[in-house]
Task: structure prediction
Amino acid sequence: MSTSGSDYSPGVLTGRSLHPGHASGAVLRLDAPLSFWGGVDHDGRVVDHHHPQHGASVTGRVLAMPSGRGSSSSAAVLAELIRSGRAPAALLLAARDGILVVGALVAWEIYDISMPIAELAPDQLAELPDGGHAAVVAGEAAGPATVTVEGP
Result:
């Protein structure tokens, strides 16, 4: 699967589920890890002035990023974004992040809202077309996850 120019073709990526659920939306592929604590505002906008995607909205997007970045408070921020309907539709990570998984678990337990989180290989994450459409299906934790991708 190649994302270069018009040569991109749809495909199915397989990874590991970190939190169950299913969602779809436009892909927002971040160039750097993001902290939800201080890096994302209550409207779901990236407000970290040092982040390459400063100003982008994560709301309703399939958010693909290398990993989360610090602060255990990110779990609470993510749970609140999920509750308010301003969270990403799904998270795709190249490295497991227990803090983000805890945020999704809290939202699931308290609000009965599930946001899928899946781990993909770094090269798979890099191939996701920014702005393309992805459907994420994540089973039970540590089980399989699939990401069906369509180009922009």
